[in-house]
Amino acid sequence: MEWFEEIMKDPIGYGRKLKADGRKVVGYFCSYMPEEIVLAAGAHPFRIFGAGGDIRLADSHLQSYCCSLVRGMLENALTGRLDFLDGVIFPHTCDSIQRLSDIWRLNVPGMFHLDLVLPVKLDTASAREYYSSVLKKLRSDLEGRLGVAVTDDSLRGAIRVSNEVRRLIGRLYGVMEKTPGVISGREIWAAASASMIADRNEAVAELSKMLGKIEARSAPAMDGRKRILLSGGVCSYPEIYRIVEESGGVVAGDDFCTGSRYFAEKSDEEGDPLAAIAGRHLSRIICPAKFAGLSSRGLRLVRMAKEKKADGVIFVLLKFCDPHAFDYPYIKELLDREGIPNLLVEIEEQPPSEGQLRTRFETFMEMIQARKA
Fold first, then answer.
1. What CA–CA distance (Å, rounded) separates 186 from 276?
2. In this structure, are strands 249-255 and 112-116 parallel, antiparallel, or unpaired?
3. Mean pLDDT by 10-residue block, N- to C-terminus, for the chain (373 residues)?
């Protein structure tokens, strides 16, 4: 795990190393950004996470009730930590990311800036056509900004390596579901997050080595630990896995955009590559900033909890994340209706009180046990 852990200890340092090696580095903010097009343009797609510390400069541009992830990303830019980026791509998802795009364009010089205006309603006949047209524009924009030609062959090659990363991460999740505890939640978090930052070919090699070692591990005794499914957006606090595990639980899966939601689907490697990328994004597990049916997200989470034999679901939501906050009440109602225990935890980019979290998780595990008795 050292390779993944080192990247996540200092992702900005890793980005600077890529730049020093002569790479073009393009930052992005959301899993709906089609990284294959950036790869096909000979550049490196680098997912930008939050500051993980004090936020000062960003607060002069954003309201205090804006989510700490967006404020942290802007803080990194305003302090010059992201000056290794050649450009940034903003998929229009939540309102905060859209407004961040405007503020970034006006206040962060030295890099190109592209908006990716994606469809919101994904279950219509016109969504695929519109999605493909947006990707064609992104392809053309990147060709102009980077001075390269993005060919269909280079796109297919990028699709293949991206699919391989997703396939290997999917195997890790399979291990976690089949034999919880063989791989820790922290290890899953590091592998998935680092794979959105690291050189994708190197990630494939390291994931393959890691899988060989993890799949050879012996399954630990459960000792009455409860199988927990985590759900939310960006998991910016990896210690939450450890606290769950130390509180009598074991993570059997997640529904994060930095986790299973991003790696669950693959693009078709044959035919029109842009249509294949569009098809993947239209069929992948949606986030609350997209629409594909009034209850599709909630019903899927219920189904996922049952498939993974989860004893309970813990929602790990960023404070002031409106899309997830709007979705939470009806999803909780569906879980309650099915008798699936659930708990809501709101966090920010800055680490919360570990003692309070531990107390809440221990109480949740006791509640699950009492319901089973």
1. 32
2. unpaired
3. 92 96 95 95 94 82 87 94 97 89 95 94 89 96 97 97 96 88 88 95 96 84 89 87 93 90 89 94 87 88 95 94 92 97 87 85 95 78
